[in-house]
């Protein structure tokens, strides 16, 4: 094989640990570190003229579109719609004139994503592909190609491809903001500076790898696990739940923290771990107050936040478990918080003894409908 596991037990572990390096590749493909500006490939989407943006994908790549929606709205003030490709392709979408559509795929061969791309193209949208395999069908059929530079991903559960998709999408959102006159030159310098710091923070987070084993082993004994997040952390809650169920076969659900009282709070008891993803951003206090609602009902919460966030939250009572994440700018929080979410699922699966790289019934790439 061209790719081996090196010192790691599984490809998934190797790929998780490769992230600082491959994120560096992804970011340097789109950001000039000296000029502190975004540089997109020639002949790509002209965001200064785009009227609306549609994004679509399947699985983990779909969650990347949900994160990117926040970025394009905030930094480029662009109206965004996202949908799962298997839904989008059968909807009668009234695509807007002058719109662009981005399709995200690790393999570039996912049947539903390809079909949705073809529909959007036929509807006159400028189509961009964010793919990890540049020779793939989706890459070839798109008008503009934005490779994610994650290198070959072997583990069925996507890890480094996801964070590199995020890095690529963050670059595009900043570029769109600049092109649309929403971001000033100073904003661009600041945001690209923040993005360039992502690999370092991810590396720092990875140092905590071993220390997550014990809590993951406890999570592994649960029958159900709930993940909560708000804003950019809501898609990560979905991704965390997906990752856990894919490789450990534990039932897990991701929820927007604010939706808690509209259903999942009924599930809370001392047997259901609740993983709360709470970077210190504009909605931190809201998320923490949702967590306290869970704790007031006897739920056991595993809080994922920065040291500052953990300390602040502790004033409202002692949580069941804590995972400390570097304190980062909200722009890159989804990239950095991907790591604890991946490690938790990985170590829970290892604790259960499942086939981490080849989970039952799943395929790396779904090329049939
Ligand atoms: C499968 C894989 C997932 C992946 C999804 C989309 O379900 O198991 O890891 O996220 O397909 O694949 P793509 O290659 O389009 O990103």
TrEMBL record:
Keywords: Aminotransferase, Cytoplasm, Glutamine amidotransferase, Repeat, Transferase
Keyword flag Transmembrane: no
Gene: glmS
Chief location of this protein within or outside the cell: cytoplasm
Active site residues according to the UniProt entry: 364
GO molecular function, one term: glutamine-fructose-6-phosphate transaminase (isomerizing) activity
Domain of life: Bacteria
Organism listed in the record: Parvularcula marina
Start and end residues of each SIS domain: 43-182, 215-359
Protein name: Glutamine--fructose-6-phosphate aminotransferase [isomerizing]
EC number(s) stated in the UniProt entry for this protein: 2.6.1.16
Top-level enzyme category: transferase
């Amino acid at each position: 094989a061209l790719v081996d596991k090196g010192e790691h037990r599984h490809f998934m572990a190797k790929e998780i640990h490769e992230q600082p390096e491959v994120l560096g590749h992804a970011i340097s493909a789109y950001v000039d570190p000296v000029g502190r500006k975004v540089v997109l490939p020639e002949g790509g989407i002209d965001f200064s003229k785009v009227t609306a943006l549609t994004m679509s994908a399947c699985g983990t790549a779909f969650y990347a579109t949900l994160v990117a929606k926040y970025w394009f709205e905030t930094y480029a003030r662009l109206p965004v719609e996202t949908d799962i490709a298997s839904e989008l392709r059968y909807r009668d979408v009234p695509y807007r004139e002058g719109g662009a559509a981005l399709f995200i795929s690790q393999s570039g061969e996912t049947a539903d994503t390809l079909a949705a791309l073809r529909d959007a193209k036929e509807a006159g949208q400028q189509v961009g592909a964010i793919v990890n395999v540049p020779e793939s069908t989706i890459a070839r059929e798109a008008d503009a190609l934005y490779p994610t530079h994650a290198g070959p991903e072997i583990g069925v559960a996507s890890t480094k491809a996801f964070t590199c998709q995020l890095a690529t999408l963050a670059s595009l959102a900043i570029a769109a903001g600049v092109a649309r006159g929403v971001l000033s030159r100073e904003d661009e310098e600041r945001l690209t500076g923040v993005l360039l710091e992502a690999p370092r923070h991810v590396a720092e987070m990875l140092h905590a790898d071993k220390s997550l084993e014990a809590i993951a082993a406890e999570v592994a004994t649960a029958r159900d696990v709930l993940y909560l997040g708000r804003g950019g952390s809501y898609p990560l809650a979905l991704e965390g739940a997906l990752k856990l169920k894919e490789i450990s076969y534990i039932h897990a659900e991701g929820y927007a923290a604010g939706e808690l009282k509209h259903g999942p709070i009924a599930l809370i008891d001392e047997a259901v771990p609740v993983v709360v993803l709470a970077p210190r951003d504009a909605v931190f206090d809201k998320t923490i107050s949702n967590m306290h609602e869970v704790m007031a009902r006897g739920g056991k919460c595993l809080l994922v936040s920065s040291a500052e966030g953990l300390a602040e939250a502790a004033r409202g009572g002692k949580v069941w478990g804590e995972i400390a994440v570097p304190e980062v700018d909200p722009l890159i929080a989804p990239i950095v918080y991907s790591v604890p979410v991946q490690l938790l699922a990985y170590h829970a699966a290892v604790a259960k003894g499942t086939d981490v790289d080849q989970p039952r019934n799943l395929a790396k790439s779904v090329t049939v409908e």
